[in-house]
Amino acid sequence: MVGAESVAGVSDSQRALEAQLHCDLTIDEALIALAQLSLERDRVVDLRARQPKVRLGERLAGAGVATVEYRYANYDVQEVERDYETLSEKIAAIQLELDLANQTKTFEVAL
What we know:
By secondary structure, this protein is an alpha+beta fold. It has a domain of about 70 residues. The protein contains three helices and two strands, in the order H-H-E-E-H. The protein has a two-stranded antiparallel sheet. Helix 1 packs antiparallel against helix 3. The N terminus is likely disordered.
């Protein structure tokens, strides 16, 4: 059973994290946000790794005439780069604040 002092300690550390992040996130919400932002960044990394124009290869179309096909990105590559940077900064900020809370706040849980 968790004592009143332990719960107060957790609440204090959550409030400290909220104040430092300048938003309304508790520690558990910050952990969830961190996971969601990481998944989003992984998706953006895939988009970022693609070339704006890729040659698919040659396909034969008739009597020895080869056609060349290309696949074009249907998104702005520079916007993807900006999104990646923004997501990385948010992840780093949340991680730093969580690390700070983990290193400076203590609480006890009786099992």
